[in-house]
Write a structure and sequence with these properties.
420 residues; 5-stranded mixed beta sheet; Alpha-Beta Plaits; 23% strand; Maf protein; 15 helices; Molybdenum Cofactor Biosythetic Enzyme, Chain A; alpha/beta; 3 domains; globular; 39% helix; single chain
Amino acid sequence: MTLSVSILATGSEILDGRVLDTNSNFVARELADMGLKLKRVLTVDDDLQELIHGLRELAASSDIVITSGGLGPTSDDLTRDAVAAFSGVGLSEHPAALKHVEEFFARRSRPLDATNRRQAVLPQGASMIHNERGSAPGFSAAAPGGAVVCSLSGVPSEFQQMFRDGVVPLIEQRRGGTPPVARAAFKTLAVPESALGKLIEGLALPPDVLVSYRAAFPEVHIVLKSARKDLGAFAGQVRAAIGPDNIFTERADESFVGRLQGLLCERKLSIATAESCTGGMVAELLTRTPGSSAVFRGSVVAYHNDIKERELGVPAGVLSAFGAVSAETVRAMAAGVRERMQSDIAVAISGVAGPDGGSDEKPVGTFFVGVASGSGSFEHRCLYAQERQRVRTFASFVALDLVRRHVLGLATPGSYPIWV
């Protein structure tokens, strides 16, 4: 049996562009992992009749309709009313939902008023879907024609947990014998999607091995999918074509920073940063994931040359002879912050982020990265001629990729972006 799943995303904030509908993207990826495909996504305004019409349209062609948003306590939270009206039932206070809301407010020492108590009102006959991260419980309800409506919070962190806890078991129960899809994932950094596409297209993979690309600047993720039981041989071809050194992980759920942090933890290595043009972005990346205190020692943001001299010990002669944006300066910055932070590894960045400040010798987008450790030090020059924010982001990730390669003993690319 092929199960069809659709999404009804609600909210004027999505339609007017204030908020991106990341929940539908999340469901599409989760369903793909289960060997299913999202059938339709329909976005409607916070209007009762629009919601009812959307439910009727999707339920006519879908086994499961997931609604996103509209479960809060305010007047524009109309999902529960729409589902009840569409299903031809009334609304009533659900005992388990009321207990959830009461406990949520009690844990925060806040009184439960009548407005927030409305979140415990569900369509009659509905089953509650627990929301462990928020105040509004979700629910699943039978719809006319045999479909099931699953209503979840629109807050992404809440939506994702509720989907996994409350919707996935329902999908598994109803999907029957849908065969799983074998998948192989490759995540790369600073390799253009066009270069990857050219390489993989040259492999002439069989038609039943589907290749998809997802650009998440400055990363590109590649996924192979097939009904075959084993993708090992084809995954090996792709791995060899891309170059194993250019793949930072083959785990779909692992981020670049998470992989680097894990690598540093495995090797029992600490890291510190010295930053100029990136203004602390590398430090922010390193502290983005839980457990960063096990590896991250600290950072010095040395934007002005006086700070580079005073706080990092960069010699005035180096700055005057070679300039702030130079291999010599980042070498001294890395050595200085490593000594001051007493870290195993240090990485330093200085560059011309733009839009002003470039020259013929060092145009906008030029940046230098210096890496220092007990096993050796090196510097790398890059040119990424883009707008300011992209230059800073790109430089931050390149700096950490150079750290990754240094720790693993991998060769340094001839240039970034990497044209494999």
